[in-house]
């Protein structure tokens, strides 16, 4: 592999001059020297050092993204949008899976800070714990103090640009749909209780239950297909009167369908997020749609385009929409 010294020798210049030309330094050089160095780069197939280029140009060309787990369909769709905008802006996207571990999030913030990324988008849910959020806020403030930009997706303690999915409103739409179909015994399979996403979606469901004069039976589990299956099995065993289940994401709803098949029970099920798989399961899944790819796109746009000085953080809410399919039906048509 060719080195910088090889390029300098081929071009007949010093390594310092070759470095300035290759790395885009603002120091002036003649057109003739520039042409010789670039010709040598092409002939030797030299690959420049990205860190050296960043230092020479004083330009941060990477962005960091924190997600709970990019293999989760929810975060995969958001990441698609984030990367689309970053790539169009000529930025490298560094994706960090935190697996819902607050300590890991802190470590990644520090690591991305050390790598001098231009911006960090925190795409995972915030935490209800004030201690976890306070520590995260301190690391974000330190990053911003050195010129970095922060944007968040979802409800967080940190005061920064934010894109907020309408989780509470979506929960209300989900509950109202089931109650309007005549269901009075509704179970909820929810994600981890420590997350703001869980709390907000559950709050919307509880608001609808109060409005219709009913109560909910809630079981918490992981925000996964297996978590949904386990929570549904527990719910069916503890309360045979349940006629409908509200799952707080589509992966859990798919698990709920599997648990019902195993138990020989057929209840109405509504999911949340409206992932692509919602159309393909049997029965097709009624869900609350959030435009996740667009949500990711907007978060990255906010991160890369700072507002005018001395203006408050920009906070935008992305609406939720009920998508009716075959997995919910009137209680009178109980199957």
From TrEMBL:
Gene3D superfamilies, per database record: 3.40.50.2300, lambda repressor-like DNA-binding domains (1.10.260.40)
PANTHER family to which the protein is assigned, alphabetical: LACI-RELATED TRANSCRIPTIONAL REPRESSOR, LACTOSE OPERON REPRESSOR
Domain HTH lacI-type: 2-57
Entry keyword set: DNA-binding, Transcription, Transcription regulation
Protein name as annotated: LacI family transcriptional regulator
Organism ancestry: Bacteria, Bacillati, Actinomycetota, Actinomycetes, Micromonosporales
Keyword field contains Transcription: yes
PROSITE patterns attached to this UniProt entry: HTH_LACI_1, HTH_LACI_2
SUPFAM superfamilies: lambda repressor-like DNA-binding domains, Periplasmic binding protein-like I
């Amino acid at each position: 592999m060719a080195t910088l010294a090889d390029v300098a020798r081929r071009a007949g210049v010093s390594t310092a001059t070759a470095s300035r030309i290759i790395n885009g330094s603002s120091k002036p050089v003649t057109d003739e020297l520039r042409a010789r160095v670039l010709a040598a780069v092409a002939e030797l197939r030299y690959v420049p050092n990205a860190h050296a280029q960043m230092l020479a140009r004083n330009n941060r060309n990477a962005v960091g993204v924190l997600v709970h787990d990019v293999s989760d369909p929810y975060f995969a769709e958001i990441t698609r949008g984030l990367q689309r905008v970053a790539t169009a802006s000529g930025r490298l996207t560094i994706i960090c899976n935190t697996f819902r571990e607050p300590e890991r999030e802190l470590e990644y913030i520090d690591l991305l800070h050390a790598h001098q990324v231009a911006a960090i988008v925190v795409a995972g849910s915030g935490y209800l714990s004030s201690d976890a959020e306070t520590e995260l806020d301190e690391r974000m403030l330190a990053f911003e103090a050195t010129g970095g930009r922060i944007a968040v997706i979802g409800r967080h303690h940190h005061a920064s640009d934010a894109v907020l999915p309408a989780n509470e409103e979506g929960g209300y739409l989900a509950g109202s749909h089931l109650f309007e179909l005549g269901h009075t015994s509704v179970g909820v399979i929810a994600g981890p209780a420590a997350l703001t996403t869980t709390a907000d979606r559950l709050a919307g469901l509880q608001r609808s239950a109060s409005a219709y004069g009913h109560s909910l039976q809630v079981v918490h589990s992981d925000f996964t297909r297996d978590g949904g299956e386990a929570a549904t099995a527990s719910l069916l065993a503890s309360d045979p009167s349940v006629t409908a289940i509200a799952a707080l994401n589509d992966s859990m709803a798919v698990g709920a369908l599997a648990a019902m098949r195993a138990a020989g029970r057929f209840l109405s099920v509504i999911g949340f997020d409206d992932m692509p798989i919602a159309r393909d399961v049997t029965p097709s899944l009624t869900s609350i749609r959030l435009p996740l790819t667009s949500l990711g796109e907007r978060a990255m746009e906010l991160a890369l385009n700072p507002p005018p000085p001395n203006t408050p953080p920009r906070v935008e809410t992305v609406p939720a929409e009920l998508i009716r399919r075959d997995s919910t039906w009137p209680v009178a048509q109980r199957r």
